[in-house]
Design a protein that fits this description.
- Two copies of one chain form a homodimer.
- Chain A is α/β, with parallel strands linked by helices.
- In chain A, 26% of the residues lie in helices and 22% in strands.
- In chain A, a hairpin with a 4-residue loop joins β22 and β23.
- Chain A is elongated, with a radius of gyration of 25 Å.
- Chains A and B meet through β13 and β19 of A and β13 and β19 of B.
Chain lengths: 579, 579
């Protein structure tokens, strides 16, 4: 067999192992190859460009010693998969659970996660979403600074561990989504720029130079990323990918990279005979991402929409700093529920410009929404969850808004029991200058919230990571048990109520009273009534309902009267009506 | 009335005239206003930001003393238009004439251009296209370094002169297109960045920072440009705009600036009751620009496609340097004729990546093509026209390919008589360092073509400009007269032959023989046969034609035989067939 690598600027390339150095031959188009025998095909290796230090393979399938170590070959044919019959639940009726492998379980590994799949399944979740697992520097991190995009992180358990987790998910009836980062590479251990023009200075991202998708030799960079996507779905049996921050992916080509990626993934789905989805995180409020290519879109399956989160968070916490200045009213929440984007062409104060475009003609299953996720929790100075900021009753209302949404709900690990642990920002760089820069940058960012900047946790400190681990024991105790039951019941109601699974936005209508602080959602024959006030409120009875039945309520005090429904302070109720 | 200006970062702004200084008041959203009386409304003025030097109005309608002078008010209501009944010819049957005001006539003014409209009309042209006229520094220049985007250049004759030219065009039955530059501003005399965030460093253009269309306060920058477009069409009665190099316009907003611009122009067309078009120059081979918004496009009316030019130029000149390395075969010409883009997703050697996307479902009237234009001629070291590079017979073949195209043909001033004058690059900067930098940059660019770099004309030298002026006397003499007659006959045939005006690309098919060097185009019942070889060629007879008639030919030697058509060396013929 051949070991191959793309290094278009190199004059010579050698394959390096601990004992050998084999000159590779140019194959054309910047590719280099070396014939290797069977033992060598199982030996750790690296590449030396123009006589330089050995560097890991850009497509390394495993980095057992981290990004600065040798690459380890992986034979994907050798794993004993048990999921031959697997077909994922339809995405339209999905309930997603976002999980960070390192803090999800005590061991912080793929195998550790397997132990908690019963809990996830019990909650009613259909898809487990893993935060990025591609090799990043250190033993702990969020994963968005990955540098070996093909290698499952060594500290999580590497390739075999990841396969065991996906296989176990499928055995439990759970689809699995992988978060992949195609907008930048991490600051430490990234050797891609040594190999070729993976980056471009034509565009800027918040994390430095953008990935080169439209300049010279970009075809091979696009191949690198598309092949990577295909690899996770084919070799690790993932059901979907979540693309991180695609608003930082710049491409002026006639065919946008995202369209190419979605098209290749969907072609793979045809080939493997099971649905495969591509979901994008995007802050552009740009419907084009999920519009079909025939209609001029990129054809992605779904996208995250942050407005839903921001509207509910700002309303319930009263926070107005940063991007929350754009939100806070019930009108915002109502618009998010009925039209997905609160900003669909109107002016954003925070952005100081018009933002977004309406989602005309699209259904809710094209949008993933949440009231908490790793970013919204973890990008706070102290990593507070929503449950740390508002009352238990408020949390129940927010959860009901999420789970009864026409969009696809996503729950962040521990949210379902109002976990006491925060989710803080943590890294583990061996370059202490970089670690200090990250710490100081973060302290500067949050300086106006604290008298003493040292109160902001140091991302490099091991305790910051440990503090963010879930405490599984607490969920058996109140108040956590009560919140868990609430989430579980909500999700069960969603699954068994066709109105709630109906993704058609035109079947969702919202009424509200900004002054009296209540909001009422009609989804077909199902009503969700929310009283955000600290006082009881009488909500109007829908005029076409002869009978109303309580499906679920956060308070025993909900009363259905002749012309009104009495809602106790801070309460939510799901009702069904017959005509 | 009020004099207003947008200066969002200023603490105070004053309106300055030669005698007065009036403090302006903040109106909100960064706008400042001052009440002015009637005499003041007719007085030259400037603005002083935070006590600084007087600067011209960003929306100055006239800069009689150039970009560094005061702004002069213009009352658009005062011009006596005579074109109330004007309706432009339909764009689908257009033949465009690109004109540089400064070199088109002896006087180099708008009024000078009027003198030659009879010639343009006689040629069969439907639309005159003016290279940019917005105020740039100096007395001579191409105009792509404009800095006062609302002010017709003082040396051309200012606002009234431009109105006289447009009015005269309409009186002659000619539509008028204006070239506008919205991708960057010139290097000298640009004060916009002093007023506000008109620029962004998020994206790079070949000419520096891009225009800010999607960052903070971009709404007002977009208003500035859209209002500018509307101003030319409404106040100067232009029929269309040609947007320079839109591939250097970067916008990640959910609604692309180009879509907004097209939509505002089309709304104006409804309002004024005559068609208005937006045409983009773009090198992305991106059909989205001219796809309807309902189908996910930007809704522009047409775009330039350079592949047509490059394919024909490379074939006929044998040149293969720069972007011509991507072209040269008859197959390229055939693809350009039948499918518009030669690069529609295939790999470009020059760009070192895949390029473009097919134009499926679009018609030829969405694409403007040429065999010469200001860039293709002027961006050569010596500014040679195609007629300076190839034989007269070759030029006739190229002209026939252009004028019989399914796309909209554009002729560059003087092309129609194979003008002897070059079109060289010229500037007139008062900053001699800048002038020297431009000269040296250009000499470096072309260094490999010349032993002595001084052979490359100095853009700043007045002779470079003078040399580029058309010599109108020569067109009465051979060989110019012959070429002019050829162009005029071709355009007349195009106008009276429905097959040739038919923009449907599926009604165009092309056969060719790369080795024998002939090409045959079928457009409905009309055939265009080209023999590029220096030898006679027998071209196959179309099998469904019982009778063939010669409509036009460049050589008396064309013979229609039983099974072949004999084409003399370097010849072209237009035939019509009946079945």
């Amino acid at each position: 067999m051949n070991r191959r690598v793309w290094a278009p600027f190199a004059q010579n390339v050698a394959l390096v192992t601990s004992g050998e150095r084999i000159e590779m031959h140019a194959e054309g188009d910047g590719w280099w190859a070396a014939k290797i025998n069977e033992p060598l095909s199982r030996t750790d290796y690296a590449f030396s460009l123009d006589g330089g230090d050995p560097l890991p393979d850009p497509r390394s399938p495993s980095q057992p010693d981290g990004p600065f170590g040798f690459s380890r070959p992986v034979d994907h044919a050798r794993f004993n998969w048990t999921d031959a019959e697997w077909r994922p639940p339809p995405f339209g009726s999905a309930a997603i659970y976002e999980c960070h492998v390192g803090t999800f379980s005590e061991s912080g590994t793929f195998d550790g996660a397997i132990e908690h799949l019963g809990h996830v399944k019990d909650l009613g979740i259909t898809h487990l979403e893993l935060m990025p697992v591609a090799e990043f520097e250190g033993e702990r991190g969020w994963g968005y600074d990955g540098v070996d995009l093909w290698a499952p992180h060594h500290a999580y358990g590497g390739p075999d561990g990841l396969k065991r987790l996906v296989d176990a998910c499928h055995a439990a009836g759970l689809g699995v989504i992988l978060d992949v980062v195609y907008n930048h590479l991490g600051p430490s251990g990234n050797f891609l720029q040594r190999y070729g023009p993976y980056h471009t200075d034509r565009y800027k991202t918040p994390w430095g130079d953008a990935i080169n998708l439209d300049d010279a030799l970009a075809d091979e960079v696009r191949r690198f990323l598309c092949d990577n996507a295909v690899m996770w779905l084919r070799d690790y049996h993932f059901d979907a990918l979540r693309l991180d921050a695609v608003h930082a992916i710049f491409d002026s080509s006639a065919t946008h990279f995202l369209e190419q990626l979605a098209s290749e993934v969907h072609a793979l789905a045809e080939q493997v005979g099971r649905p495969l989805a591509v979901i994008a995180e995007c802050d552009l409020n740009q419907p084009r991402l999920v519009i079909a290519p025939e209609a001029g879109g990129y054809g992605l399956d779904a996208q995250w929409s942050d407005d839903f989160h921001h509207a509910i968070h700002a309303l319930m916490t009263g926070e107005r700093s940063g991007y929350y200045e754009d939100f806070g009213s019930l009108a915002d929440v109502a618009k998010a529920l009925a039209q997905v984007y609160v900003y669909d062409g109107n002016r954003s104060r925070f952005r100081r410009r018009a933002h977004g475009r309406p989602v005309h003609g699209l259904t809710g299953e094209r949008f993933v929404v949440c009231i908490q996720n790793h970013d919204q929790v973890g990008n706070r100075a102290m990593g507070e969850r929503l449950g740390h900021l508002i009352s238990r009753e408020g949390l129940k209302i927010a959860a009901a808004l999420l789970i009864t949404s026409a969009c696809v709900p996503l729950v962040f690990q521990g949210e379902e029991w109002a976990a006491s642990s925060p989710f803080q920002y943590f890294v583990d760089y061996r370059d202490l200058k970089l670690a200090a820069a990250v710490r100081d940058g973060r302290r500067r960012e949050f300086a106006h919230f604290f008298d003493d900047p040292e109160q902001v946790p140091d991302p490099q400190a091991p305790q910051t990571f440990m503090r963010s681990k879930l405490n599984w024991d607490e969920r058996e105790h109140e108040p956590h048990r009560e919140i868990f039951d609430w989430y579980r019941s909500l999700i069960a109601v969603r699954h068994r109520t066709p109105d709630l699974c109906d993704p058609r936005l035109e079947h969702t209508s919202v009424e509200f009273d900004e002054a009296s602080h209540w909001l009422s959602i009609r989804r077909g024959k199902t009503l969700i009534l929310c009283n955000f006030a600290d006082l009881s409120r009488q909500l109007p009875m829908p005029d076409d309902a002869s009978t109303l039945e309580i499906v679920m309520t956060s308070s025993p005090g909900v009363r259905i009267g002749e012309r009104h429904i009495l809602m106790p302070p801070s309460s939510v109720a799901i009702l069904s009506k017959s005509q």
